[in-house]
């Protein structure tokens, strides 16, 4: 890690696959429909190309592989029906409850309060389903309502999806707009983005924020040997231009963790209560 980074003052979190186990549930729902039509389970070699990509379940990559005997719209409808059944079974991932609870009471090494926000590509209907259990509802209650950015938030009107930086920049704005009197506005360099998807990491890098990548174990296996490119935001699953926004390999702005358990607060200039 570069020694000249300022201590973190804000942490911005993705939700799906990072805080709650929705990636496994998305796979389950897809597999149920695939099996119904005699197709094999969704392999991670394909899923890795879909995660974090808007509209990927109805896109060419998935359907070129799936070769389903039904229209894309029918698959989408049946998949959503399964999601309505299974999303309420979402659970927090290991370490997430402790991390969020600790950050709400934390300061950085300069004594500045740590602020947190949520930035998810999930819409309100699916968010309510995913957070309907007591465990997930309690987990997400750590975020103030105005610092909880969902994809259909009116504040995101005309915004681009990840890997564009728009949602993370809005999350930072939501924090700065609600700082206490006397608090200096937080800069992107003072922000730490938490992501599990590759496009999400790229979005964080494009926002000029530091990034912690916490991939699903199976996703990590798919990108073995390419971790440095992921952390630089240079995989390029979705081409959006603005190459100058991307990072450089080994520039210190991104790190990979296997889970959010035993998070290394001190590495980011964060002090937590014992």
Automatic annotation (TrEMBL):
Pfam families tied to this protein: Hydrolase (PF00702)
Regions that span the bilayer: none
GO molecular function, one term: phosphatase activity
Name the UniProt record assigns to this protein: HAD-like protein
